[in-house]
User: What shape does this take?
Amino acid sequence: MAVKKSKGQYFTIERLIFIGLLVVGLLLMGFFGLRAARSYIRIQQTGLEPGVTDVEAIRGWMTVPYIAQAYQVPESFIFEQLDIPAEGNRKKSLRDLNREQASGNPGALTEVVKTAIRHYQAENPPTPGGDP
Amino acid sequence: MTDINVTDFLLTAIINYGALAFGVALVLGALGVPVPGTLAVIAVGGFVRQGVIDWPSAAIFGLAGAVLGDSLSYGLGRFAGDWAERRFGQSSVWQNAQTTFNRRGGAAIYLTRWLLTPIALPINLIAGGSRYPFWRFLIYDLSGEATWIVLFGGLGYAFGSQWELINQFISDFSGLLVGIVIFAGGVYGLFRYRQRKAASARREAVAPRG
Assistant: This one.
């Protein structure tokens, strides 16, 4: 059933909607403004060197071939250190590999990869200025 | 409990299957599937720098995917719009909304492709629903998506392996912009409301009383 509103009621509902927009806008501005400021400060504090790859940036979504390319380490060397065959594991993420190989110890394989890369880079220093 | 992380799944898919996975992700994102599209664009910029993906295929598949997804959601809006047209077509509010979108929709389409991305899907639906001409939609859409891919992909390329840092900032900054736009909409609306109320009061004062 349609409710016929008087002009006064129409104005009041409209006003409430605009006040609602102001409140929602302010809340979003406050929430995201603080987060954006925090992200910005973090960027400022991090000495950004886009050409340098830090092993601490290794994540669970990465695959061994990707890590090998990004860190300029032979793929076979990483698989050797992980003690798993490349066959059938090349497209699996570190998280999936970890789940299959060391399910009781999350992040264990990631640590092995980090140590392996540090080792490799110590023995074969990356070319200065080379892109990852 | 299965630990499925959409972002991780997406990134692994992109490094495994390249530009094709990137394009598919952008189609799904434009259709409202919660896929982190901006993150994908920034990450792909970083992957291009690392030599994992080549930039021409990333640009082509990315642009094609985004435009295809936007066109499909425009189509959905058009389909829903037919129903709304039958139901509300005679309403002056509906007609006003259509006229306003037809006049100013281009800027809304362009800006929501790359700057105010959280409201891109509603804009696609509104554009379709209000029968905004498809060819005009396509022109603004293509320009906006190209800006998105070049700008954010470029940032990812510039930040290289540290693209994750800039992604967090951009995501928060985009939320802040949406907040500013909503707040500005409220201020503008209240301003217009006061003007109309004052005009209405003046008319009532001038009108002869019977």
In short: Residues 1-48 of chain A form one domain. Chain A touches chain B through 51 residues (CB under 8 Å). Chain A has two domains: 1-48, 55-123.
